Amino acid sequence: MTEQLGNSELSELLKSRCPHVFAARPVFVSSLRLRQVNEVIQAIEQTVSSPGWREHALDSAPPIARHDPRGARGVFFGYDFHLDDDKLGLIEINTNAGGAMLNVLLARAQRSCCSGVVGLSPGQEGPGGFERSILDMFAQEWSTSGEPRPLTRVVILDESPQAQYLYPEFLLFQRLFESAGIDCLIADPADLAFHNECLLVDGKPVDLVYNRLTDFYLEGDNCSALRSAYLADVVTVTPHPQAYALYADKRRLVDLTNARFWKRLASISKSEPYWPSTSRLRFLSSIAMRSTSGKTAVASFLSLSAGLVVAVRTEETSSPSGFGKKSLAETTWPSPL
User: Fold this and answer.
1) How many CA atoms does the CB half-sphere of 286 hold within 13 Å?
2) Could you tell me the CA-to-CA distances from 223 to 95, 156, 194, 196, 205 in Å, in that order?
3) Between β-strands 192-194 and 199-201, what pairing exists: parallel, antiparallel or unpaired?
4) Which of 30, 129, 219, 220 has the fewest C-beta atoms under 10 angstroms from its C-beta?
5) Among 309, 269, 261, 268, which Cα is nearest to 285's?
6) Which residues contact 38 (CB under 8 A, 6 or more apart)?
7) Statement: residue 241 has pLDDT above 60
8) Cα-flanking dihedrals φ and ψ of residue 94, to 5°?
9) Do the Cβ atoms of 325 and 317 come closer than 8 Å?
10) What is the pLDDT of residues 69-125, one digit of tens each?
């Protein structure tokens, strides 16, 4: 792994900061479980596309959640599942899931020394293909925001980023962006300034903010510059407050288990073409109910390292950022084994 990093200092930082981030043993997930996971994700996506769900979710969120994110959907959604023998439970939906770059690193390390894992790792293009899909995803977030020029500067944002558990992954993302010719800075929200209708970091204009904050609605005083720039539509923020309100607010997971809620929402949603079938809703509700019966939430990066699933969502797009064209309507990327 040190060889794949090509940086002894980063290798030591990863070992000291994240000593338990990688599973000690491979975890095999059956095709049946993966089909169930996919079915749950599809049911959730269809549900969230319903105007009834949208109105319900945004009504209970701060006003910033109603602000139009200009086409950005949100990067790195994580659907965190708990596998326990014959049971499958949805623990949470995470709109700023971590761990993707750590999985790329692990896949590269394993492929370089263990030929037997090649057939077990998903994707024909391997880690390099997944990295390209990550760049494509950010390029699409930028282009769907209505920006015709290439993406030139990204800020990875979190509070006290150097103190964060996953700071090594921030450095890996920084390296990935810079390899594609995109300037990338890692910053605290207090480092940002909003001046002359422009979001700045170190005096430089910011195109896109890769948001790793847990202040999901940008309510803190240290987020004032980011909040102002976002509401002024001068920066692309991904993931954004609206994505959190629609998917990740824990109250929405409770809604998935509430039969009365389903009946009420279904009664006003009969004409909606994407409303999930009754059987899917029943299955989705049963999965989510298992998750709220005393199970403890687990972090996304631990789920990923244990061999679970992260969804990377992009669509076929002609990217102005030079990343090319990619069709990846919904790609699941299990952790390398």
Assistant:
1) 11
2) 18, 14, 11, 17, 17
3) antiparallel
4) 30
5) 261
6) 332
7) yes
8) -120, 120
9) yes
10) 999 999 988 888 888 777 788 888 999 888 888 888 777 766 655 665 656 655 556
In the chain, the number of structural domains is 1
Burial pattern 250-270, b for ≥16 Cβ within 10 A else e, equals eebbebbbeeeebeebbeebe
**Confidence label for 2 from pLDDT (cuts 50, 70 and 90):** low
Range of the domain at 245: 2-332
Whether the CB-CB separation of 95 and 75 falls below 8 Å is answered with no
Q: Omega into 239 within 30° of 0, i.e. cis?
A: yes
State yes or no: pLDDT of 210 exceeds 90. Answer: yes
Query: Residue with structure tokens 């500067």?
Result: 153
- The answer to whether 134 and 176 are in contact (CB under 8 A) is yes
Rounded to the nearest 10 degrees, the angle between the axes of helix 126-143 and helix 100-113 is 160
Other CB atoms closer than 10 Å to residue 123's CB: what's the count?
A: 15
Q: Is residue 161 domain-resident? A: yes
Q: How far is CA 70 from the centre of its chain?
A: 18
Q: Which helix (H) or strand (E) holds 232?
A: none
337 found inside a domain: no
For residue 209, is it within any domain? yes
The DSSP code for 37 is: H
- Tell whether 190 is covered by a domain: yes
Q: How many helices (H) and strands (E) does the chain have?
A: 13, 13
| Stretch 255-283: mean pLDDT | 60
Strand 153-157 with 183-187, pairing: parallel
